[in-house]
Specification:
Elements lengths: L11 E11 L8 E8 L10 E11 L2 E10 L5 E3 L2 E9 L2 E3 L6 E3 L1 H7 L6 E9 L11 E7 L3 H14 L7 E7 L24 E7 L11 H6 L2 H8 L4 E7 L2 H14 L2 H13 L3 E5 L1
Parallel strand pairs: 10-11, 10-13, 11-12, 13-14
Antiparallel strand pairs: 1-2, 1-9, 2-6, 3-4, 3-9, 5-6, 7-8
């Protein structure tokens, strides 16, 4: 898995904010969908790629540039020769381990504060690991937490709008603290629900049992509830697993899949096979 510093920041472009919309209610964590238009017609980002955002910061060592990577949250499209790309941004904060003070995340707060008409500097496009399989009968197990839904929304849209006669199963497991924070799977902005009538697509929601108490999202329970189907999918050579979300998702998945296969050794062996075959991909932040 590549690290952020591995991505080239020399290719820089100016992008204008066309639209910024808060997707979550006021009483929850702020998540915004931001639509950008890249001013240079040479910029061309595909659905399996992402882009970086450069933010000027100042600190005790002087001015510097902060780089943050984002995946596209919708199908990139051209308007008047200029590409438009959508992104998801959660306004983040972090607590200093030494002082205990709370500080705003640099890129997330910068982006959430942008207004329509503002211009930002982006880099890329950068290749990301979530490729559209060449085989139309490939099975996909997609696991996303929070804004990790972004690349999978774009991927699912691409498959069902651009790939004729798709035959493989797609199972999307999406976790959020509460139903109010489920993006693209609710009454307000539920465009992923339009694929429910497809024989090949199903989405499953995993929520925290007590979101106000910060209980963990019950992702393992959602996955284990589909144990029989997942075991069947894992037995096939054409199954891929794509994972996006914060670091705890790794432990959640290892627990769930170990329980499903009734053995940690069996799961870790199968996971190693998926990785060796290029059929496991993850973006962890």
């Amino acid at each position: 898995m590549a690290h952020l510093e591995d991505f080239n920041t020399n290719n820089r472009f100016q992008a204008r904010v066309l639209k910024t919309e808060r997707l979550t209610p006021e009483e929850t964590d702020e998540v915004r969908e931001i639509l950008l238009e890249v001013q240079d017609p040479q910029f061309d980002c595909a659905v399996h790629q992402g882009f970086g955002v450069l933010v000027k910061t100042s600190g005790e060592f002087g001015n510097r540039l902060h780089h943050r990577l984002y995946s596209v949250a919708d199908l990139p499209e051209k308007q008047n020769g200029r590409q438009r790309i959508a992104m998801l941004v959660k306004r983040c904060w972090y607590v200093d381990d030494f002082s205990g003070e709370k500080y705003p995340g640099i890129a997330s707060n910068y982006l959430c504060d942008r207004k329509p008409g503002d211009t930002i500097t982006i880099t890329g496009p950068h290749d990301l690991p979530f490729k559209v399989p060449e085989e139309k009968d490939a099975n996909l197990i997609l696991v996303g937490l929070g804004t990790g839904i972004a690349p999978f929304r774009a991927l699912v849209k691409y498959i069902y709008q651009k790939v004729p006669d798709w035959q493989g199963k797609i199972r999307l497991f999406y976790g959020a603290r509460s139903g109010l924070e489920l993006l693209y799977l609710n009454e307000e902005d539920g465009d992923l629900t339009q694929y429910y009538d497809r024989e090949t697509f199903e989405a499953f929601k995993a929520l925290s049992p007590r979101p106000h108490w910060a209980d963990p999202i019950a992702l393992d329970e959602a996955i284990e509830a589909r144990a029989a189907e997942i075991i069947d999918m894992l037995s096939l050579a054409n199954t891929r697993i794509y994972v996006a979300g914060y670091e705890k998702v790794r432990d959640m998945l290892d627990k769930a899949f170990s329980n499903i296969m009734e053995s940690k050794i069996k799961w870790h062996t199968r996971k190693a096979e998926l990785k060796a075959g290029g059929k496991w991909a993850e973006i962890i932040y």
